[in-house]
Amino acid sequence: MTDAAQPFDIPVFVVVPPRVLLLDVAGPIEVLRKANLEQHTVRFTVTYIGPSATVGSSIGLAVTGVAALPERLPDNALVVIAGSADAPMDNNRPWDEQERAEQAAIVAWLKRAILPGIRLVSICSGALLAAEAGMLDGRDCTTHHACIEDLVRLAPTARVRDNRLYVEDGDRLTSAGITAGIDLMLHIVAEAAGHACALAVARYLVVYLRRGGSDPQLSPWLEGRNHIHPVIHRAQDAVVANPSQDWSVASLARLSGASPRNLSRLFNEQTGMSVTDFVNLMRVALAREMLAGSRLDMEAVAMRAGFGSARQLRRAWNRLNDGPPSAARSRLPVGS
User: Fold this and answer.
1) What are the HTH araC/xylS-type domain coordinates in residue numbering (predicted)?
2) Which helix (H) or strand (E) segment is 314 a member of?
């Protein structure tokens, strides 16, 4: 294998606190494991770290083999802080001095180890440790609904958002309770390895990708995916991977192993839209990304997104959006 074929490595360091809530670790990291198997462009390498080599978990199972907190982190590291359970299974005793000391060690380590360029991800109540370390000062953030008041107290200058699955503010990413960590990690995978990879992982986990963390609207890339029908998923995966291709009902039917008539029927039943509507939805989503992230003119955007002309793009756009396509450029910084 040549150097050019080597995958881009993203080192992931999972901080394991005392009384770790096991699903905060297993859920998000299972997303990364499956993402590594689904594609070869990006590889997530995971290391579990903490102040203790053995940690008790929320369900009474001990977690062992935890590496020491490193003195330095790679510049492109992704640090994930799991949450803790106040009352682990069969253990309602108060936190002891050693557990408090381990929490304090994590906070102290975050203060010295999280340098510019390192992304910090908190799962559930892990946000409280990040807040205590000052990592969320002045940031938009969230946590488990039961911990919102504690987060406000620990990070008084932060903009704490409730009723959010996850919140991204620059290199700080925070998620709400427990399974929302899976949603956040799927979002990270989508950004690093593409929407098709994230969708494949979600389907493997039998998880419906919900709306973006701080976006009240469902992402167009995720619409029509709340089903487990393999024929429709094959067709949808092909379109998501390359929306600009000349997709017809017949070509997608051949690819998915169904007749054109059956594919059309299944599409309407499973997604609530026609094949053509789904293709146009993906093309408009692609056009939106190009409009927001480039200075390409409307005709060039239309052609690259799979439309025959800017007029076709505008017609499809207007069926899905209130404003014109040009409104998508308003967030692009001057000089980009």
Assistant:
1) 233-331
2) helix 310-320
